[in-house]
Design brief:
about 25% helix; four-stranded antiparallel β-sheet; about 200 residues; alpha+beta; single chain
Length: about 200
């Protein structure tokens, strides 16, 4: 009887192993997968600069005649105030950037207060250490915004005709530069790194 029981138990055990084996062969595991695809586009820093178009009196034109231009011509007169508002436009698609201007002011000696240099300070422009006539904007410039460099030029009322005659064809030239903000904590660091590229022939 004992032998018969053991045989029966063995048969049952074998049957259970077959069933378990069959189930194990059809188990579907819970799985998951995912893919991250990084698409890189090229960033850019893009600025433009212009100023208000002026009439023969050096005043900005208004109404239908108003426009933004790359240059103006002025007739110097003692005591006269001229509208000149070079403005840097940071393109809407541009990366944040540090702005710089290089100014050649050939009529500085006959300017009345407030001079171009005074206005630069008031507008947030700071002289770049170790450079001549180069100024940095004191904050990060952001996309889609405009940054005025200065707004007017005033000739001293005490300037004589003979003095004015020595200023024929003299100019005020403004060159704007921009360097990406990313990677640079300060304007000074950005200028130091990019100076050679911005001004390859100093």
């Amino acid at each position: 009887m004992k032998k018969k029981f053991l045989i029966t138990l063995s048969v049952v055990a074998c049957a259970l192993l077959l069933v378990v084996g069959s189930i194990a062969g059809t188990i579907a595991y819970l799985t998951s997968q995912d893919t991250v695809t990084n698409t890189f586009t090229v960033g850019n820093v893009k600025i433009t600069m212009d100023e208000a178009k002026v009439g023969a009196d050096g005043k900005a034109l208004t109404g239908e005649d108003a426009a933004r231009v790359k240059e103006n011509s002025y007739k110097l007169l003692p005591g006269h105030v001229y509208d000149k508002d070079p403005t840097i436009h940071v393109d809407a698609s541009s990366e944040n950037c540090w702005l710089f201007v290089e100014i050649t002011d050939e009529i500085a000696a006959i300017q009345d207060a407030t001079t171009i240099a005074d206005q630069l300070t008031a507008k947030g422009w700071v002289a770049v250490a170790g450079e001549t006539n180069v100024y940095a904007y004191n904050q990060v410039a952001t996309a889609g915004n405009d940054y005025v460099v200065f707004e007017t030029v005033k000739v001293k009322g005490t300037v004589t005709n003979d003095e004015l005659a020595t200023y024929i064809n003299k100019k005020v030239t403004v060159i704007a530069y921009a360097v990406q903000q990313d990677g640079f904590d300060t304007a000074a660091a950005a200028w130091a790194a990019a100076k050679t590229e911005l001004k390859p022939n100093p």
